[in-house]
Amino acid sequence: MALSAGQLMEKGEINGLKAATGVADTTFTATLALLTAAPTATDIAMSSETEYAATGYARQAYGPTTPTAASPSVASNTSTITFGPFTASVTGTITWAMLCDSTAGGTSLPYAAFLLGTARTPLTGDSLQCAASAFTLTLT
Amino acid sequence: MPTTHVYRHPEGKGLGRHHADAEGRERFDAEAAASRGLTTEEIEIIAAEHDRHAKLDLAHGTEIEFDYVHPDTGLYHVTWTDFFGTSRMTSIDPEVFAEMFEEHPDYAGPCPTHSSVQEHDYHRGTFGRPDHRPELRTVSVPADVAASLASAGEVHADHGLLGAVHDPALPTPDVTGQVARHGIPVPEGTDA
């Protein structure tokens, strides 16, 4: 069973959260969203999150690697993930990223949250690029 | 990835650059940076970063695929590939989309953004223009075909354009182009 972001957060593992469910067992379209506020333990849908809302923003494909055979197993984003360019209503500071199960909509389920190492405040015209393997899920 | 549109900027700017300029955001100036005391090495690093960032922009001439209209924001979501080969999803304001994204000449599917020819032309800024009226006239169809389409709920009869009764004195119009492209089924035998 997949755990909500809140449930994952309560487990208090890497970077505040980590997935306790096997990525390899999931069949959803894994996408990465950007948040301007921390998720809470009661969040059960993306509508509960404060998602970045600039025009130009859209959730991006997470594209996880195959989990490693080691124990604990590790999976991460295979490739560079780039958001933008942000073109209007470019306000707010991005502090978290959230793995969820669809490209749009508040009913999407949040699966795992990542606290960014450095908060980012884009300006109009900017794109935001995340390195491959930047978002790591440890499977225990 | 089926291409539906191409981004065209009148001055060849990227989409992000266009909006940054419109907002008055300054470009990186190496001379100004030097006058502020930055070293050559520092300026080179910053310039390289600006150059890399510019390559992340949605560049003039980029082919995109229209994905969907966001259910909450109304923004258009498109997929495209950037300079580095990374697949990207970006939301676009509908007005900006109408202004700067041209339908790809090879695209023959239904119009992804508008449900009718009239709405499509209105957003393209061509609705009602004299040079477009002849094209609108070509969608008139024989009476039996119009009745057939109307019964199928595909004709907006109140517009008086798609539902127009064909004048037998005129040659049978070609209804396979614009009409078919907007998702209206064309009965067999009506394409000239």
Keywords:
heterodimer, A: 140 residues, mainly beta, four-stranded antiparallel beta sheet, two-stranded antiparallel ribbon, globular, disordered N terminus, B: 192 residues, alpha+beta, five-stranded antiparallel beta sheet, 8 helices
SS strand fraction of chain A: 25-35%
**SSE order of chain A in H/E notation?**
HEEEEEEEE
- Spans where pLDDT lies below 50 across 5 or more residues of chain B: 126-138, 154-167, 171-187
Cα Rg of chain B: 23 Å
Helix amount of chain A:
under 10%
Low-confidence stretches of chain A: 1-26
Radius of gyration computed on alpha carbons of chain A: 14 Å
Average predicted confidence as pLDDT of chain A: 83
The strand line-up of the biggest sheet of chain A is 2-1-5-6
Query: What oligomeric state do the depicted chains represent?
Result: heterodimer
**What's the total number of strands of chain A?**
8
Helix content range of the residues of chain B, please?
A: 25-40%
Provide mean pLDDT of chain B, rounded.
74
Number of strands of chain B: 5
Structure description:
The complex is a heterodimer of chains A (140) and B (192). By secondary structure, chain A is mostly beta strands. Chain A has one helix at 5-11, and strands spanning 31-35, 60-61, 73-76, 81-83, 94-100, 110-120, 128-130, 136-139. In chain A, 5% of the residues lie in helices and 28% in strands. A four-stranded antiparallel sheet of chain A has the order 2-1-5-6, covered by helices on one side. Chain A has a two-stranded antiparallel ribbon with strand order 3-8. In chain A, strands 4-7 form a two-stranded antiparallel ribbon. Chain A starts with a helix and ends with a strand. Chain B is α+β, with helices and mostly antiparallel strands and 192 residues long. Chain B is 32% helix and 13% strand. Chain B has eight helices and five strands; from the N terminus they run βαααβββαβαααα. A five-stranded antiparallel sheet of chain B has the order 4-3-2-1-5. Chain A binds chain B through residues 53, 55-61, 79-88, 103-106, 123-127, 129, and chain B through 14-21, 23, 25, 53, 56-58, 67-68, 70-73, 75, 77, 82, 84, 86-93, 96.
